[in-house]
Amino acid sequence: MKPGPDRVIECPHCKTLMRVPTLLSGNTLGARWWTDGRMIAPMLPSLPAITRCHGCECYFWISEAKVIGHIRYGLEEPPPEWKAAKRVRKLSEKEYLEAIQNGLARTREQELYLRTQAWWASNDPLRFTGLDEIQTPPHRSPEALMNLERLLELLDETHPAERLQKAEVLRELERFDEALRLLEFDFPDQYEKVTSLIRELAQRKDPLVREIG
Ligand SMILES: [Zn+2]
Question: Is the pTM above the cut of 0.70?
Answer without folding.
Answer: yes
